[in-house]
Amino acid sequence: MPIDLHDGDLPDDVYFGPTVAIDTETMGLNPARDRLCLVQMSAGDGHCHMVQFRAGVYDAPNLKRLLADPGVTKLFHFARFDVAVLKAYLGVVCAPVYCTKVASKLVRTFTDRHGLKDLCRDLLGIDLSKQQQSSDWGSAELTPEQLRYAASDVLHLHELRARLDVMLAREGRTDLAEQCFRFLPTRAELDLGGWDEPDLFAH
Protein backbone atom coordinates (compact mmCIF):
# COMPACT_ATOMS: atom_id res chain seq x y z
CA MET A 1 0.00 0.00 0.00
CA PRO A 2 1.41 3.45 -0.85
CA ILE A 3 1.89 5.57 2.29
CA ASP A 4 2.92 9.23 2.31
CA LEU A 5 3.97 10.59 5.71
CA HIS A 6 3.83 14.39 6.00
CA ASP A 7 5.30 16.46 8.80
CA GLY A 8 2.76 18.85 10.32
CA ASP A 9 0.33 19.36 7.43
CA LEU A 10 -0.98 18.06 4.13
CA PRO A 11 0.73 19.29 0.95
CA ASP A 12 -1.22 21.80 -1.14
CA ASP A 13 -1.82 19.38 -4.02
CA VAL A 14 -3.43 16.44 -2.16
CA TYR A 15 -7.05 15.83 -3.25
CA PHE A 16 -9.38 13.24 -1.74
CA GLY A 17 -12.65 13.79 -3.61
CA PRO A 18 -16.12 14.04 -2.01
CA THR A 19 -15.43 11.49 0.76
CA VAL A 20 -12.25 11.02 2.80
CA ALA A 21 -11.68 8.25 5.33
CA ILE A 22 -9.97 9.56 8.46
CA ASP A 23 -8.55 8.12 11.66
CA THR A 24 -6.34 9.46 14.44
CA GLU A 25 -3.63 8.07 16.69
CA THR A 26 -3.14 9.60 20.12
CA MET A 27 -1.17 9.02 23.31
CA GLY A 28 -4.29 7.59 24.96
CA LEU A 29 -8.07 7.78 25.06
CA ASN A 30 -8.51 11.01 27.05
CA PRO A 31 -8.53 14.03 24.69
CA ALA A 32 -7.96 16.42 27.60
CA ARG A 33 -4.76 14.61 28.55
CA ASP A 34 -3.52 12.53 25.62
CA ARG A 35 -2.21 14.51 22.69
CA LEU A 36 -2.94 14.01 19.01
CA CYS A 37 0.05 12.40 17.25
CA LEU A 38 -1.12 11.29 13.80
CA VAL A 39 -3.98 11.81 11.37
CA GLN A 40 -4.31 9.31 8.55
CA MET A 41 -6.51 9.75 5.46
CA SER A 42 -7.51 7.84 2.34
CA ALA A 43 -9.71 8.47 -0.67
CA GLY A 44 -10.52 4.76 -0.79
CA ASP A 45 -7.99 4.15 -3.55
CA GLY A 46 -5.50 2.10 -1.53
CA HIS A 47 -3.29 5.15 -0.94
CA CYS A 48 -2.84 6.61 2.56
CA HIS A 49 -1.66 10.08 3.52
CA MET A 50 -0.59 10.71 7.10
CA VAL A 51 0.14 13.92 8.98
CA GLN A 52 2.43 13.54 11.99
CA PHE A 53 2.35 16.16 14.73
CA ARG A 54 5.11 17.13 17.12
CA ALA A 55 4.05 17.93 20.68
CA GLY A 56 2.31 21.31 20.84
CA VAL A 57 2.60 22.08 17.10
CA TYR A 58 -0.81 21.93 15.41
CA ASP A 59 -0.68 24.64 12.76
CA ALA A 60 -2.00 22.66 9.79
CA PRO A 61 -4.04 24.98 7.55
CA ASN A 62 -4.50 22.51 4.68
CA LEU A 63 -5.67 19.72 6.95
CA LYS A 64 -7.97 22.07 8.87
CA ARG A 65 -9.48 23.29 5.61
CA LEU A 66 -10.22 19.70 4.56
CA LEU A 67 -11.79 18.79 7.91
CA ALA A 68 -14.05 21.85 7.90
CA ASP A 69 -15.05 21.60 4.21
CA PRO A 70 -18.87 21.15 4.08
CA GLY A 71 -18.56 19.60 0.63
CA VAL A 72 -16.41 16.68 1.84
CA THR A 73 -17.86 13.86 3.94
CA LYS A 74 -15.45 12.73 6.65
CA LEU A 75 -15.70 8.97 7.07
CA PHE A 76 -14.69 7.54 10.47
CA HIS A 77 -14.96 4.42 12.57
CA PHE A 78 -16.02 5.63 16.05
CA ALA A 79 -16.27 9.24 14.93
CA ARG A 80 -17.24 10.35 18.44
CA PHE A 81 -13.62 10.03 19.61
CA ASP A 82 -11.84 11.25 16.48
CA VAL A 83 -14.08 14.29 16.04
CA ALA A 84 -13.49 15.24 19.68
CA VAL A 85 -9.71 14.88 19.39
CA LEU A 86 -9.59 16.92 16.16
CA LYS A 87 -11.68 19.66 17.77
CA ALA A 88 -9.49 19.68 20.89
CA TYR A 89 -6.15 19.93 19.05
CA LEU A 90 -6.92 21.51 15.68
CA GLY A 91 -9.89 23.63 16.73
CA VAL A 92 -11.98 22.33 13.82
CA VAL A 93 -15.54 21.01 13.82
CA CYS A 94 -15.63 18.07 11.40
CA ALA A 95 -18.83 18.04 9.38
CA PRO A 96 -20.46 16.33 7.64
CA VAL A 97 -19.41 12.96 9.05
CA TYR A 98 -20.26 9.29 8.61
CA CYS A 99 -19.47 6.70 11.28
CA THR A 100 -19.21 3.02 10.37
CA LYS A 101 -19.49 2.03 14.05
CA VAL A 102 -22.81 3.86 14.46
CA ALA A 103 -24.08 2.42 11.18
CA SER A 104 -23.10 -1.07 12.28
CA LYS A 105 -24.91 -0.72 15.61
CA LEU A 106 -28.05 0.40 13.79
CA VAL A 107 -28.20 -2.56 11.41
CA ARG A 108 -26.09 -5.38 12.84
CA THR A 109 -28.33 -5.82 15.88
CA PHE A 110 -27.69 -9.57 15.81
CA THR A 111 -24.22 -9.00 17.35
CA ASP A 112 -22.49 -6.85 19.94
CA ARG A 113 -19.22 -6.86 17.99
CA HIS A 114 -18.88 -3.56 16.14
CA GLY A 115 -15.13 -2.94 16.19
CA LEU A 116 -13.29 -2.18 12.96
CA LYS A 117 -11.59 -5.58 13.07
CA ASP A 118 -15.01 -7.23 13.42
CA LEU A 119 -16.54 -5.28 10.53
CA CYS A 120 -13.63 -5.95 8.19
CA ARG A 121 -13.78 -9.66 8.98
CA ASP A 122 -17.56 -10.03 8.80
CA LEU A 123 -18.33 -7.75 5.86
CA LEU A 124 -15.15 -7.82 3.77
CA GLY A 125 -13.42 -11.07 4.72
CA ILE A 126 -10.31 -9.12 5.77
CA ASP A 127 -8.39 -9.93 8.95
CA LEU A 128 -6.89 -6.74 10.39
CA SER A 129 -3.96 -6.88 12.79
CA LYS A 130 -4.37 -4.71 15.90
CA GLN A 131 -0.91 -5.49 17.27
CA GLN A 132 0.31 -1.87 17.08
CA GLN A 133 -2.83 -0.30 18.57
CA SER A 134 -1.23 0.42 21.94
CA SER A 135 2.24 1.38 20.72
CA ASP A 136 3.97 4.73 21.33
CA TRP A 137 2.46 7.08 18.76
CA GLY A 138 4.34 10.05 20.20
CA SER A 139 7.68 8.71 18.98
CA ALA A 140 9.56 11.05 16.64
CA GLU A 141 10.19 8.13 14.26
CA LEU A 142 7.28 5.78 13.64
CA THR A 143 8.10 2.22 12.67
CA PRO A 144 7.03 0.61 9.40
CA GLU A 145 4.72 -1.63 11.46
CA GLN A 146 3.05 1.40 13.03
CA LEU A 147 2.57 3.05 9.63
CA ARG A 148 1.04 -0.09 8.12
CA TYR A 149 -1.29 -0.44 11.11
CA ALA A 150 -2.37 3.22 10.91
CA ALA A 151 -3.02 2.93 7.18
CA SER A 152 -5.13 -0.19 7.62
CA ASP A 153 -7.53 1.79 9.82
CA VAL A 154 -8.64 3.95 6.87
CA LEU A 155 -8.07 1.89 3.73
CA HIS A 156 -11.28 -0.17 4.09
CA LEU A 157 -13.75 2.43 5.37
CA HIS A 158 -15.14 3.35 1.95
CA GLU A 159 -15.99 -0.26 1.17
CA LEU A 160 -17.46 -0.77 4.64
CA ARG A 161 -19.66 2.27 4.17
CA ALA A 162 -20.97 0.88 0.88
CA ARG A 163 -21.90 -2.42 2.54
CA LEU A 164 -23.48 -0.72 5.54
CA ASP A 165 -25.46 1.70 3.36
CA VAL A 166 -27.12 -1.26 1.66
CA MET A 167 -28.07 -2.70 5.04
CA LEU A 168 -29.33 0.66 6.34
CA ALA A 169 -31.58 1.03 3.29
CA ARG A 170 -32.80 -2.56 3.59
CA GLU A 171 -33.78 -2.07 7.23
CA GLY A 172 -35.32 1.36 6.66
CA ARG A 173 -32.81 3.13 8.91
CA THR A 174 -30.95 5.42 6.51
CA ASP A 175 -32.67 8.59 7.76
CA LEU A 176 -32.08 7.60 11.37
CA ALA A 177 -28.39 7.01 10.65
CA GLU A 178 -28.06 10.41 8.98
CA GLN A 179 -29.59 12.10 12.03
CA CYS A 180 -27.12 10.29 14.27
CA PHE A 181 -24.23 11.38 12.07
CA ARG A 182 -25.34 15.01 12.19
CA PHE A 183 -25.40 14.84 15.99
CA LEU A 184 -21.86 13.44 16.33
CA PRO A 185 -20.02 16.82 16.41
CA THR A 186 -22.35 17.88 19.23
CA ARG A 187 -21.77 14.58 21.03
CA ALA A 188 -18.01 15.17 20.75
CA GLU A 189 -18.42 18.70 22.11
CA LEU A 190 -20.32 17.30 25.10
CA ASP A 191 -17.53 14.80 25.73
CA LEU A 192 -14.92 17.57 25.68
CA GLY A 193 -17.06 19.60 28.08
CA GLY A 194 -17.13 16.81 30.64
CA TRP A 195 -20.55 15.33 29.89
CA ASP A 196 -19.20 11.93 28.91
CA GLU A 197 -19.31 10.41 32.41
CA PRO A 198 -21.99 10.43 33.52
CA ASP A 199 -23.60 10.62 30.10
CA LEU A 200 -25.93 13.62 29.79
CA PHE A 201 -28.59 11.31 28.32
CA ALA A 202 -28.32 8.68 31.06
CA HIS A 203 -31.02 8.34 33.74
How would you portray this structure in words?
This protein has one domain (3-192): Ribonuclease H-like superfamily/Ribonuclease H (Nucleotidyltransferase, domain 5). Helices cover 40% and strands 16% of the residues. The protein is built from 7 helices and 6 strands. The protein has helices spanning 61-68, 79-90, 100-107, 116-124, 144-155, 157-170, 174-192, and strands at 3-7, 19-26, 36-42, 48-52, 73-76, 97-99. The longest helix is centred in the last third of the chain and has 19 residues, at 174-192.
Total individual domains: 1
Question: SS-based structural class?
Answer: alpha/beta
CATH architecture: 2-Layer Sandwich
Note the gap between the termini.
Answer: 47 Å
Major beta sheet summary:
6 strands, mixed
Spatial strand sequence of the major β-sheet: 1-4-3-2-5-6
If helices are DSSP runs of H or I spanning 4 or more residues, what is the number of helices? Answer: 7
Topology, number of strands:
6
Cα shape: globular
Strand coverage percent: 15-25%
Oligomer: single chain
Q: What series of H and E elements makes up the topology?
A: EEEEHEHEHHHHH
Q: What is the CATH topology?
A: Nucleotidyltransferase, domain 5
Mean pLDDT across the residues is 95
CATH superfamily heading: Ribonuclease H-like superfamily/Ribonuclease H
How many whole angstroms does the radius of gyration measure? 16 Å
What is the CATH first-level class name? Alpha Beta
Low-pLDDT ranges: none
Percentage of helical residues?
A: 40-55%
